[in-house]
Amino acid sequence: LNTPGSVFFIFGATGDLARRKLFPAIYSLYREGKLSEDFAVIGVARRPRTQDEFREDVYQSIQEFGRYRSDLNEEWNTFAQHFEYKSLDINNIDGFRELREQTESLETKFGIPGNRLFYLALAPELFGSVSFNLMKGGMLDGAGWNRLVIEKPFGYDLESAAKLNEEINQVFKEEEIYRIDHYLGKEMVQNIEVIRFANAFFEPLWNNKHIANVQITLGETVGVEERGGYYDNAGALRDMGQNHMLQMLTMIAMEPPSRLLPEDIRDEKVKVLRSLRPYASSDDVAENVVRGQYTKGSAGGKELTAYREEDKVHPESNTETYFAARLFVDNFRWAGIPFYIRTGKRLPVKTTEVVVEFKRMPGNVYLGQKHSLEPNLLVIRVNPMEGLYVKINAKKPGSESEIEPVAMDFCQSCLVGINSPEAYERLLHDAARGDHTYFTRWDEVASAWSFVDKIAQSWRENQGQLEHYPAGSWGPQKADELLQKDGFHWWPVN
Ligand code: BG6
């Protein structure tokens, strides 16, 4: 499982993602023996930094965010040797030529066979020019492979995404591109496939005959924090919907792949996206999608400011910080079954959960039950709690005929000794090994955009569709009505 010897280039090395996720992930891989000594990391950013200062940044980041921080001191001197910094103006080709020399000397020092992984933790507007300058500066002429790893947002709509893709494609082939959706790196998202396809309990029932609806909730307690500038332009639909929410939906809805190969799996996922029923009109969007923005509120005795008062947010902003939608996957497996998805900032709980609600049993055939039976539920807890929870009906002990719902709860994150890898560890490791499974392919990205664009267009035309909800609440009431129309309700998250 070792990664082949390679140089990791982290563009945006002084930024937040590098500090919180990437450096700690690299150390975890090293600590677990998934990186041997034949690797190097070159941090690239504009600001000047000495090698020692940069190594100090890396050290601090692992101390703060690393899973194995307590082991760091022992190995630090050896580990730190693998890290170098390059201050670079990304518009200056000469800088790339210097980077090439630096790279070659590191490759010689650590016996690395010319494999290069370029991780762009940068604004997407820069992806095209950085790719181009990598080529012009001779950075792609090494003896090994070249791979490009890019972060979201991948475009703003289908058109801009296609343009961005075209620019990157002038330098990198699709199979060299790794588009990150970090939700696909989460342990429990990956587990969805295993739970479905490895259990006789679930797969035979996984269709419109037995399932009544599926609910995906991705709640966050944070507001926009210091990202107002980006977020006010994007909004929840683009920030979470186009990517994480739809990707989780594909994992729930996809057909079993014929082989466990990246392309076979991604083929099945894109089929789900293509089967999403597009909203036919603005009225259709208004009826099926709810959009909200938080006003001031409170949580845990703390006052929370309104979205419009957040830093770098326009005081009359109509950007949504919440959305919920009712979707249909129009294929043989799912026809007629609603999928409800919702996500928002400043909700009461930080959680990602998938609830699969099964159809109700036909009435009180057996026991003289006064109330209708509760449906069976399968709850997949993705984040931050990880686990699985099944709600079944059982006889109430001591009673004649009363039935009550009981839970079978598997809490993965409660098990001693389980310290789930961070999404970025898994994804970096996969990219370095050349495994595309948990990265989004261009046709997936494009299909997701074309679905989302219809919603965005309708919102643009009807700004009045924005609902408000107090910070710290579960979002607009209209989101409850989405389900009530179908005779369902959101299951409370745990
Ligand atoms: C990011 C979004 O992709 O995901 C953020 O841009 C969001 O707005 C984050 O906060 C949530 O990720 P996680 O892993 O903390 O649930």
TrEMBL record:
<dbReference type="GO" id="GO:0009051">
    <property type="term" value="P:pentose-phosphate shunt, oxidative branch"/>
</dbReference>
<dbReference type="InterPro" id="IPR022675">
    <property type="entry name" value="G6P_DH_C"/>
</dbReference>
<protein>
    <recommendedName>
        <fullName>Glucose-6-phosphate 1-dehydrogenase</fullName>
        <ecNumber>1.1.1.49</ecNumber>
    </recommendedName>
</protein>
<feature type="binding site">
    <location>
        <position position="182"/>
    </location>
    <ligand>
        <name>substrate</name>
    </ligand>
</feature>
<dbReference type="InterPro" id="IPR001282">
    <property type="entry name" value="G6P_DH"/>
</dbReference>
<feature type="domain" description="Glucose-6-phosphate dehydrogenase NAD-binding">
    <location>
        <begin position="10"/>
        <end position="191"/>
    </location>
</feature>
<keyword id="KW-0119">Carbohydrate metabolism</keyword>
<comment type="function">
    <text>Catalyzes the oxidation of glucose 6-phosphate to 6-phosphogluconolactone.</text>
</comment>
<feature type="binding site">
    <location>
        <position position="152"/>
    </location>
    <ligand>
        <name>NADP(+)</name>
    </ligand>
</feature>
<dbReference type="GO" id="GO:0005829">
    <property type="term" value="C:cytosol"/>
</dbReference>
<dbReference type="Pfam" id="PF02781">
    <property type="entry name" value="G6PD_C"/>
</dbReference>
<feature type="binding site">
    <location>
        <begin position="89"/>
        <end position="90"/>
    </location>
    <ligand>
        <name>NADP(+)</name>
    </ligand>
</feature>
<feature type="binding site">
    <location>
        <position position="350"/>
    </location>
    <ligand>
        <name>substrate</name>
    </ligand>
</feature>
<feature type="binding site">
    <location>
        <position position="46"/>
    </location>
    <ligand>
        <name>NADP(+)</name>
    </ligand>
</feature>
<comment type="similarity">
    <text>Belongs to the glucose-6-phosphate dehydrogenase family.</text>
</comment>
<comment type="pathway">
    <text>Carbohydrate degradation; pentose phosphate pathway; D-ribulose 5-phosphate from D-glucose 6-phosphate (oxidative stage): step 1/3.</text>
</comment>
<feature type="domain" description="Glucose-6-phosphate dehydrogenase C-terminal">
    <location>
        <begin position="194"/>
        <end position="491"/>
    </location>
</feature>
<keyword id="KW-0521">NADP</keyword>
<dbReference type="InterPro" id="IPR036291">
    <property type="entry name" value="NAD(P)-bd_dom_sf"/>
</dbReference>
<dbReference type="GO" id="GO:0004345">
    <property type="term" value="F:glucose-6-phosphate dehydrogenase activity"/>
</dbReference>
<dbReference type="InterPro" id="IPR019796">
    <property type="entry name" value="G6P_DH_AS"/>
</dbReference>
<feature type="binding site">
    <location>
        <position position="239"/>
    </location>
    <ligand>
        <name>substrate</name>
    </ligand>
</feature>
<feature type="binding site">
    <location>
        <position position="186"/>
    </location>
    <ligand>
        <name>substrate</name>
    </ligand>
</feature>
<dbReference type="InterPro" id="IPR022674">
    <property type="entry name" value="G6P_DH_NAD-bd"/>
</dbReference>
<feature type="binding site">
    <location>
        <position position="345"/>
    </location>
    <ligand>
        <name>substrate</name>
    </ligand>
</feature>
<feature type="binding site">
    <location>
        <begin position="12"/>
        <end position="19"/>
    </location>
    <ligand>
        <name>NADP(+)</name>
    </ligand>
</feature>
<feature type="binding site">
    <location>
        <position position="220"/>
    </location>
    <ligand>
        <name>substrate</name>
    </ligand>
</feature>
<keyword id="KW-0313">Glucose metabolism</keyword>
<dbReference type="GO" id="GO:0006006">
    <property type="term" value="P:glucose metabolic process"/>
</dbReference>
<keyword id="KW-0560">Oxidoreductase</keyword>
<dbReference type="GO" id="GO:0050661">
    <property type="term" value="F:NADP binding"/>
</dbReference>
<feature type="active site" description="Proton acceptor">
    <location>
        <position position="244"/>
    </location>
</feature>
<dbReference type="Pfam" id="PF00479">
    <property type="entry name" value="G6PD_N"/>
</dbReference>
